[in-house]
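Q: What residues go here?
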């Protein structure tokens, strides 16, 4: 049996063991429930089926300052447009207190140049998964998910960095990670709120693409809170994340991330360090890129008595897609290349009513490209972003 088959069998064995463990917990838990007499005053969990409908809309006005463009007559102009960058319809619910589900269609603009729908708003599936909650048997917050679901790292960050309507988080925006993928995952928490761990086994191509071969991505995230009871530092969290994947057999596609975040009533902030390795093929002379980068962001805020707030957004990303001068193909040398993104903005979050959130963000974004074999122009844009979520 060759190495690929051995690895595949090992991975499938791990998945089988995990699923068997879950089944054992469920069966043993049900048996325990049947044998133990509850104390007086015990309130059984609510197993009434429920369903909720929600929506998220990202809309903006974008004015591009650099580079200028030219129309069909050769006239120079600065592009600007009104856009609906993304809209979600969230359908969530519970079959019982153990089994939950989520279905989220995603409406976005088709950008594929070869598609007959290029430029149209298209309807696709972003999330569709079933979740088995294991709080009855394991620490609170433990679950198993199966289907198209959030990838572990981005799922853990979006609740802290709430400006995805300006632009996605650093690893995703740099093109090294998808926000969702099809697969199975398991999450559990550490005692006394010290953190959590999540492990998933996914296609590896992202939710917007079909699986292309038999290679799968193993994703592991470990989060740790050093001081969960400290009055100020309880909002500090450290995370490590790793993806082991292959574009094709023996051609590595890996991502390693170190992340640190801090949450406080007056400011949220975060830091990411990203290391990547991408091989297009295991054959000699094929593209072999090793990238590295980092990002820092902060959102200082002032909250008013009516629940509204004014927040500043400051963010800086720096990414080297190939931090080693490399030979590609027949003697073609690739430049290292450095992408630097600077974002600055001011946001107003309207008073929250129930589960409804509405925010406006005015921001400026500049992206520079240096040390490329073929020079790239600086990009500069001014935005008015809006978020509606309920």
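A:
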């Amino acid at each position: 049996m060759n190495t690929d088959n051995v690895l595949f069998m090992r991975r499938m064995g791990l998945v089988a063991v995990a699923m068997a463990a879950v089944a054992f917990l469920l069966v043993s838990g049900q048996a325990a429930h049947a044998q133990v007499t509850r104390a007086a005053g015990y309130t059984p969990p609510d197993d009434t089926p429920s369903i909720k409908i929600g929506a998220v809309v990202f809309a903006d006005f974008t004015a591009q300052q650099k580079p200028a463009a030219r129309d069909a007559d050769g006239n120079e102009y600065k592009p600007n447009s009104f856009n609906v960058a993304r809209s979600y319809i969230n359908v969530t619910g519970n079959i019982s207190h153990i089994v939950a589900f989520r279905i989220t269609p995603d409406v976005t603009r088709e950008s594929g140049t070869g598609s007959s729908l290029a430029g149209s708003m298209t309807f696709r599936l972003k999330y569709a998964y079933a979740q088995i909650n294991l709080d009855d048997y394991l620490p609170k917050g433990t679950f198993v998910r199966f289907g198209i679901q959030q990838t572990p790292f981005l799922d853990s960050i979006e609740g802290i960095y709430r400006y995805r309507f300006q632009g996605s988080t650093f690893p995703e925006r740099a093109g090294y990670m998808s926000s969702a993928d099809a697969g199975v995952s398991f999450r559990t928490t550490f005692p006394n709120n010290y953190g959590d761990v999540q492990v998933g086994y996914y296609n590896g191509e992202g939710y917007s693409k079909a699986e292309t071969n038999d290679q799968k991505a193993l994703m592991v995230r470990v989060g740790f809170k050093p001081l969960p009871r400290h009055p100020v530092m309880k909002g500090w969290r450290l995370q490590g994340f790793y993806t082991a994947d292959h574009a094709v057999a023996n051609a590595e596609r890996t991502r390693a991330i170190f992340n640190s975040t801090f949450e406080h009533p007056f400011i949220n902030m975060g830091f990411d360090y990203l290391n990547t390795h991408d091989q297009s093929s295991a054959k000699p002379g094929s593209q072999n890129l090793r990238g590295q980068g980092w990002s820092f962001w902060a959102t200082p805020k002032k909250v008013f008595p009516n629940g509204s707030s004014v927040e500043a957004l400051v963010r800086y990303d720096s990414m080297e897609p190939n931090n080693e001068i490399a030979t590609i193909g027949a003697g073609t040398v690739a430049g290292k290349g450095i992408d630097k993104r600077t974002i600055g903005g001011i946001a107003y979050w309207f008073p929250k009513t129930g589960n409804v959130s509405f925010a406006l963000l005015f921001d400026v974004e500049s992206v520079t490209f240096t040390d490329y074999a073929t020079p790239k122009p600086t990009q500069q844009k001014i935005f008015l972003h809006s978020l509606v979520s309920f």
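A: Context that may help when evaluating the design: The chain has a mean pLDDT of 86. Residues 189 and 196 are 4 Å apart (CA to CA).
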